[in-house]
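PROTOCOL LOG
Step 1. Enter all chains and additional molecules of the complex.
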Amino acid sequence: MRARALVTLLLLAGCEAKIVMPPPPGGEVLADGGCPPEGKNDELRQALSGACASCHSTGNKPYFASLDAFENGLVYDERWVKRGDPEGSGLVKLLEGTNPGSYPQMPPGELFSASVADGRSKVSIDDVKAWIRDLPERSAVNEGPSPGAFTVRRLRADEMVQSLMAQLGLTLEDFVSTSNPDWRNRAYVPAGGRFFIWPGDWSPGISGEYVSDSRSTERYETLGGAVVLQGRKHDASLGPAATQTLVQVSQAWCRRAIDKAGNTTVLRYVTAADTSATKSVEIRKNIAQLSLRMLGEPPTEAEISELYQDVYLPLEAQSTKVAWTAVCAALVRHPKWLSY
Amino acid sequence: MLKWALGASQVALLDRAGLLRTGVARADTADAPSRLCVIYVPGGFRPQYHFWPMGDDDVEHCVPEPGGFAGEPAFFRKESLIDLGAANGNYKPLRVWRSWDPSNPANRTGFSPMMYGFQHFDLAGQMAVLHGVDQGTADHGSAFVSAMCGVASPDFRAPALHSVFANHVYGRYASTRPLPFVTVTTERGLPVAQGLPSHAAPVRVPSIEALGPQMSDNPMTNAWWDKLNNRTPSPELSIRGDALGTMLETTALEAHTLKQPGKLLGRSNAKVDSFLEGIHGSLRSVSRVLAADVVSVLQAQKGIDALTMKPSYMANYGLGAFGYTFGLANFHMTSMEPRLDMALRLLKSDLTSAVHVALPLDFDTHSGLGHGFSCAHGRAQMDIVARFLGELKATAAPGMPGKTLLDDTLVVVLSEFGRSWAYKSSTGFNLPDDHHPYTSVLFAGGGVAGNRSIGTYDRRGFGQATDIIEENGQASSRVPRSADVVSTAMRMMGLDFHEFFIPGGYGEVVGLRKT
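Step 2. Run joint prediction.
Step 3. Record the structure below.
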């Protein structure tokens, strides 16, 4: 019973807020992928979406982004909808072109009836008025978290730096000079050619001692890291600049982990001396463990084979260290590693 | 609790902007500039000391008595105002304080050569200033966002103008400009592509020294590319496997990596798919940059060329092309040159469509000396802008016979807002130095109607109504907003109103665009 409920829940989750590209020109912008409307309000949201969602799915008035957004931002905001009073509702005035605000008409520049006529709106102004007259009370609205909500975000730069160091068995000593006994409390002196990345406002930076190589902090910012002291926020997107840095760091740090004496984070079941000629089973086993280590889930046989055939084998002839660097870097660049 | 983000998608917005319907939108105005350079002045500046916006009789009410700052002349009276050039149509020409000695602009005894650069390089015919722009906020962060995208908000609610433009011309230059949008320096904020494809997101190229480790696959520079930089060309594919009509050179590792995001499509909602598309686009962009060896190209490209011979009027300043000193040694500006040199390299090398560069001096002074600082340094920085424009004017536009780089570039100089205005009281001038939500914007280069001063302020520095064509084509008269600045820049670059979208509405300020 519980299993069936879970399956039902997941199916519903799959339906949530599925937004598809519109067929140009015109046509619906928002369609919930065949999911039935979740009540009268959702029916109206879907019916109006063709006329309204193109401007109101994002930004500061994203009423059509989801049912919750529709209900919380429009339906139960008396500025727009007065339950039982369609003539007094701002939404109706907007659709009829009589709204006293800066936008008298929605959609701007055309009559709502044109949207009805060409099919972008599936409901007429009379339907909208009837819906407002019979609008259910707000108490009927579920304001709890939606089980269908699926959010994904990129790893922040600090998470990337810390995760990668831990997963690859690297520590600060692999990147900075330790010749001064008090090196931890002084400005770090990065060793050349290690592609060190460090936030400008982490210790020892916050104690007034800064990473001596500004490139290290510059890279951190390019990776999208926040700098509290400069008021810079974490970059929520993973654009080309961050990816550019990640591509470099994935290869540089993976190679460093492989070269590090006694470090078995990358080479656990094989050594750099082992080749596919005699150790193909062990190599595949090592790919599997490395994938599990980096991505947090056991890889399928197909995934292991793809890494083995497409990445490891073509590069093994160059050198096994090069091949393992590539396998490791491929996992760091995998969407599952990059996201949370 | 509002859950705006739940199931939200940028797709609809992009469709409204006409940016995704055919994959990428294309500019349809052949004569419009194909490059954008945004020069951002951090901290809020006082444009009234650079380009006088009001009537001459207002000077004595809004500009402190002439004096000095750090050994330089500061402030002026109406008698020293001049037009930068002949009026262009029924519009007020640009009007500036002639602080220089007309018989010898290099003379610094009682004079300042600053701002003479606009005359020296004969720039008036390719520049205009919009005054009295309402930024919608007096908070630095929100105002920066407002200046970049036209919507005042702590976070971007629309893509930055650079991103919109880079995306707009991407189809035309995909194979020749591997860095569609570059930020050189990012003081006080990073313009973002908010929802646009990853090729419209900024790539940071902070310095020539940072280029190698960041953007090179040469093992001599980055040892971890040893035997991993063998690239093979193949048709470039979208995340769904559709041919994009271009070729992409990838390594075996990159080819494998590019296959992974597509396998996860359709497992969740559109937002996740959009995230995956972003990763895929970014990975393609990285391969393109590495294959193009932009490091070698930029290192070989000369940024400062015409200005290598320092302009004669700068003879007594002793610093480089983009430097200045105050007094004998009261202040040395040396940090301007690397960033403007990089911006020039990027524009001249034809690697990029949009460049953002923040200037190094921050005007957030909050001090009794703030007005003097704004006047002296502001005019010095504007003179550096003039030199930058002069260098662009002296350079042929790559691949565009008969055009200078300035003809083919729209340069927009702005700050996040203004700073509170000086005003006269019974005891003299009061000099408040706080944030002020009204500002001015300098447009220069391609697409700009020459020598026009549009819009104005009242004597307390509040913007006044000017003629605007709204996005629906209606004429109106109102105080311009940051959205109108972005919109007007878009129109200068050949975009029609329906080809971009700024939440909250927008219009084009009349008189700024070359028609």
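Step 4. Note key features.
DSSP finds 13 helices and 23 strands in chain B.
Residues 1-28 of chain B have pLDDT under 50 and may be disordered.
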